[in-house]
Each structure stands twice: as structure tokens, then as C-alpha cells.
Amino acid sequence: MMDDDEPLQFFEEEKQEELECLKPPWKIMLVDDDPSIHQVTLLALKGVVFAQRPLKFYRCYSGAEAKKMLAEESDIALIFLDVVMETEQAGLEVAKYIRGILKNSLVRIILRTGQPGSAPEAKVINDYDINDYKTKTELTSTKLLTALVSALRSYQEIAKSEALREALIKMLNNSEVMLEHTDKMEFLDVLCDDMSKILPLAQKFETSPVIVNLFEFNDEELTLFIPVKQEKQQSDSLAVGFNSFIEFIKINKYHSLVNNEFALLYICPFETEEATNTATSIYLALKYANPIEIEEKQLLLNLANNVQTVCNNICMKESLARINQTLEVKIVQRTQELKQASLRAEQANLAKSYFLSNMSHEIRTPMNSILGFTQILERSTKIASQEKIILNKISKAGQHLMGIINDVLDISKIEAGAMSVNLVNFDLVALISDIGQMLQFRCEEKQLQFNFLNHTQEVIFVKGDQRKIRQILINLLGNSVKFTQNGSITLTLSQPTKDHYLFSVKDTGPGIDSEEQNKLFVSFTQGKSGIQKGGTGLGLAISAKQVEIMGGKLSLDSEIGAGAHFYFTLILSPTEADNAYVEATIVEQINCIKGKYFRALCVDDVAENREILGSVLESCGIDVVYACNGQESIELIKEQRFDVVFMDLLMPVMRGDDAIQVIRNDLKQTELVCIAVSAFSLEHEIQHYLSIGFDQFIAKPFTFPEIFSCLLRFYPDRFEVQEIQPKLPISQPDKQVNIAEFKLKKSLLDELKLSASINHLSRVNQILSEISTLQPGNGIYIDYLLNFIQSLDMNGLIKALEEIKHEEE
């Protein structure tokens, strides 16, 4: 229930008094007309300390008294609120007053009542903005403490977010004020005063104002900047604390540094008219009373960038004025343009930050429709050959876009600390061999030699995050294939010491210069070759962070003209072969077994999502009923019997996570299979949804095989797997087709002949599908060859392949 950085402790009264001197207490309001409830609550929570802050209680015995106190006390963190007091609805009126009149969305409200019949839980949760509902009988001392900790943690996080939002607004407003200056000396002269007005940015509980000063550095020492009107004694005292920064400044000129107590923020260079050949650096020096928190440090670095930008703009205006006074009007216009550009840049950075931490639900929802309807059309027998080729391209483009979205989501997970290591038992050599086979074909297309060097055993069963290792190696190998035009790509697995495995990817590509190497693992950053080839600039950044999460480090050795060598080492503990992870088989189609009636409820507020999921289920012979929100689904479940419920989460009227708790707790439907289908797919979110009653989670956009596998998992005796015909369109043989006019690359033609000779039909289908995508104008020849497969005429196929001519490679 409690994180390590938020300890909950119990102190004796004298110790608690000492603690209260360090941080202000949490303000807790008890609203109940029964004095005994007050006494019991105070007794149960006596001496509690959360996040190094004690509790302070405010006691009210009526709704009217609570309203009066709330109007006076704006920083109440938590309210334990009774319902029935001077009236049967007094507590609910207080809740409405808090949210509606006071507009207070921060305070946490826990409704506790001894008369639940007067305020039914389902109705109160729907109609009032409260955070928890408890009956007095269920609130034991332990549960009361649990509710308190949960509410304070929630309040703490919301208050922190609000503080960050207010800090960004302060910084934005401050930038606008500073941009009004037209003279650099004037700007520097008032900079300390401007900074004092907004500091601290987001840090709470500062016992005294932040000390602000400007210093200049002349390559040897920090001295007080003369234009600033400060008492020299105080400034010199502050300068002593910054002596430890001098070596840092010498090595990292024009950079900012923040530690636990001090911040040294680089502002601009400075030249005096008397000594134009001697330039010093101006730094903004800050001294906090308390240790500087992580969020405050990040904001201070952003503040430094803002001030630098403003100072650069002011210097530019001065320079333009000196060049030609007659261009004053144009200078003003240019300044306004720069101001707007600066604001747009700040807004763009803000938008990017929010996007990385919260993947937009609105992006994945339409992608679910695009890919879902594409899958429906691909399965249709009424679509012509050329149209299916186009659908195949749409599907691949959609999957590529989802890959980009998932890359951004991975970055978001990593930065939010939501990405964890998922350990499974697997055969390491088999995994790498499988990856090598995937890359072999791409290498052959570019006439590259692919080598897999295994310096370990033939079979190694280990425990590790198989998915991350696969993703990292595919990304590294894919980059090598993309940038290498001739030569070879080598994947090497070795074991330097026990349980330590070294993965190496080496190519003969153009190489990477040292300047580009320094920024290669930064998100949204690409080298010159990457910009020419395209991409998002996320792949290597994600790979580097995934390796780091698993306890390793992704390294690079490269020189221009000498190729690139990426490598990393992971510790993987050994395991038994019997426990090895086996990937689930992809199921293309299932049908209800004859005589087995099956009903499903599809719940989603988006009509397109209902249509796609309903189409998938109906294709299996399932009777499907639809609902638009959680409330509708509950009413239907009360009246009808269903075998399975597919439930979206974010819906109007009633969310899916609220509906599942009603289904499990109120309707007592504990055996009904309920599947969550949602775009909210962070790992910790999935675990939450499973913990509140869902049997399985399927992320949007989903594939049809995921739905089929889900149904087979819970009802293996109600469905049978159906064999699917090849997806490529097959038409009747055309006697007019002259297959000798068809030309293919020799490597492709040889692989087709080999696969046909050993009766490897799935590989023949795969190659023909790829050729169809690459050469849409040759669809007539692809259809001609597919007819031999349909009629199982392998001899005819082999003869037809012999007639095809190969291109010179």
C-alpha cells in the first residue's frame, strides 16, 4: 500500500512535535454529527505520519459548519464526510458545495455513512464527485488507515501536478515580461528581482525566500556582477558556496548545474566596451533553504533555457538598432515574430512532454477502426485481386504507423517509469536463430551476406525478457540492413563469463562519425544517414533504454567508412527446458461447434468499434448483443444470459471499470467471462484492470486472431479452429498468360523453385505475396502461379517456374 519514499510512521507526541517543525501537517477534516465517531477516528489515526508530515484534524458536527470552515481553509487535503446529519442529505450537499461552489477539485472526499440506504453507493458514485464510499461498519482501524493513505497519496500527486502546471504558467508569464526589455544591461539589472518573484517554481514548504544573485566568470573565479544592486557581504557569502562549481564551469562552459542546495544557471556572455577582447560569462546563482527537489531541478534548467532565449532576443534587438536606426519598425516586427516563435517553441515542447507521458486515447481508437475494417475486407471473398493488393498496402501502412505509435508509447513508458522487465524461460539460441532467419531474406534482397556466429552452446535455456531482447536485436539488425549497401552483417552471441551473454551486431556500412555518435541514443534525434533514409529517431533511443532497464548498456564502435559495431551484455540466469516459454499459435478463424449456442455482449461507445468487434464475433457463429456504455450493459446482464462480455473502459454515463465492479459485486456475476478491450494499455493499467475483475485484457487496435485465441482460452470445448484459404486472391487459369514474359530476381526465383520442389506451400504463398506487393503490375502472373497451388498441381507449378526468366542482379 505504501511506497518506500512515502513512509508511514507512528510517533509519540513529543517526537511528533519535533517533526511538525520540519514540514507542515496534512489538514484532515472530520464531518460527523456523532462525537463518538470523531473520538474513534482520532484514536485510530493518532500519531500517524505520512511522507514525513503529521496530521492535523479539523472537526465539524454539521454540514453548515463544514461549509463555513471549508470557505476559510483552502488547503484541506482529506475530508471524512458523513451523509445524514442535520438533514438526510447534508453530507451530499457539502460534496456539491466543495466541487460546485468552491471549485475545489484537489481535496479528497471519503463518504462514510452509517445509513447506506439513505445514500446508495452506486447512485452516489455516479451523481457526486467523491473519491471513496465507505460504510461505518466496514471502516476498521486498518481500513481507515488504508483509506487515509490512499487519499493522501492521491492528493499529493494531484497537488504536485497542479504545482507543476502553475510553475509553467509562471515561467511563461515571466518570459513575456522579460521580453519587453530592449536593453541588455537593463534586462540584467532587473533579472534578479524578476526571478525572486517566481521562485521557488514548484517546490513547497520553503522556510525563507530563495536567495538570487548574478555572477560573472572570467575563466578563473566567480565575482559579483556589478550592475546588480546587492549588499556585497551577502553576495560574497553566497559566492563561497559556489566555489565547488568552478571546476565544472571550466570544463563545461555555457552549461547550467543544479545540486541539492545551489543552482548555477548560465545566462549569456558579457563584453564591456572598455575591453571588447575579454568576454566573461554571466550566471544566475540561486540558494534554497531546503534541498532542491527533482521536479524543481528540471524546471530550473528549463527556466535557464527560457532566460537565455529572452537574453538572445534582447541582444539581437540591440544589434539591429545599432546597424541602422532607420529600420526601427522592422526591428519591432521581427521582435514580435521572435517572441511568437519562442512561445510556439515552448508550447511545442510542452505538448511533446505531455504526449510522451500520456499516449493519446484518440490516436489508437481510429487506428482500431482502420486496421479492423481492413482485416474485415481482407477476409472478404467478394474483393477483387487488385483491391486486395491495395488493402494489403493499407494494412502494412497502418501497422507501420502503429509501430511508430508504439515506439512513442515505449518512450512514454520508460520516462514514466512504467516499463518493467517481464521474465520468461526461453531458448536463447533458438530466439536469435529465428531473428536471423527473418533478416536473411532482407539481406538477400540487397545482396548482403548475413552471418550468425554462435560461440556458445547449441541450446541455452535462460530466464529473461524475451520480448525486449527480440525487439532490440531486430532494431539493430534492421538499421544495419537499411544503411549497408554492400558487404555483410554479422550477429554474434558469446558468453564471456558465467551467465553473462554478449550480443554483437556488426556491419560494413558507411559508419558513423564521432559527433553523431554523441547524440545517436537521444529520442527524436537522427544522424545524416538516418535523415536521408527516414524514420522517427526513436529506435536506438528505445533500444538503449531497454538494455539499461535489463541491467546492461548499449555501446557503439564506429568510424566513417569502417561500418558500425553495436554491442551489449546481459546477465541471464539458466533455467530448465521443461519451463521454456512457447509462443502461442496464431489462430486465423474459429467457428462455434454445431449445436453449441453462444452469446456475447459487445460494449463500446464508438459505433465503429462495436461494428468491427461484432463482425469478428458473428463470423464465428456467435449471437452478438450491443451496448453503448457500462450502465446499458448492466441492464442487459440483469435481463439476459451471456457467455462473454467484451467491455471498453472509457465511456460516458458509466465507465467499463466501474461497470465490472457492479457486475462482480452487486450482480454477483463471478463466473461471467469479462474481457477489457481498451487503448489504455500501459502495463500497470492492465494489471489494475485485471485486479478489479476483468478476466483478460486486449489492447486496441486488436487483431482478429487475438479475439479468437481469447475465446479458445475460456471456451475450448465450444469452438473449433477453421482452416483458412490463402489470403491472396485466386482466379481461374488464364490460358492467354505467357509466363515466359514474367521476370524475377534470380535469388527470388531460386527460392521459389526450392520451396516448390520440397512442397513448402506456405513459403511459396509468402514469397508470392511479397512479390505481389512489390510488383503490383504483375498481378496476372501471380494469380496464374497461385492456381497451381489451389489445384495442388505442384508439377505444373515447377514447370511454370522453369519458364520464368531471371533478371540480372
User: Helix coverage percent of residues?
Assistant: 40-55%
Q: Structural class of the helices, strands and pairings? A: alpha/beta
Strand order of the largest sheet: 1-3-4-2-5-6-7
Beta content comes to: 15-25%
How many helical elements?
27
Average pLDDT: 79
Determine Rg (CA atoms, Å): 33 Å
Q: Give the strand tally.
A: 29
Q: Extract low-pLDDT stretches.
A: 1-21, 228-235, 530-536, 725-735
What is the approximate shape?
globular
Largest sheet: 7 strands, mixed
Q: How far apart are the first and last residues' alpha carbons, in Å?
A: 65 Å
Could you name the key traits of this structure?
809 residues; 7-stranded mixed β-sheet; 5-stranded antiparallel β-sheet; 18% strand
Structure description:
There is one protein chain. This protein is α/β, with parallel strands linked by helices and 809 residues long. The strands form seven sheets. It has a seven-stranded mixed β-sheet with strand order 1-3-4-2-5-6-7, sandwiched between helices. It has a five-stranded antiparallel β-sheet with strand order 9-8-12-11-10, with helices on both faces. A five-stranded mixed β-sheet has the order 14-16-17-19-18, covered by helices on one side. The longest helix has 38 residues, at 141-178. It is globular, with a radius of gyration of 33 Å.
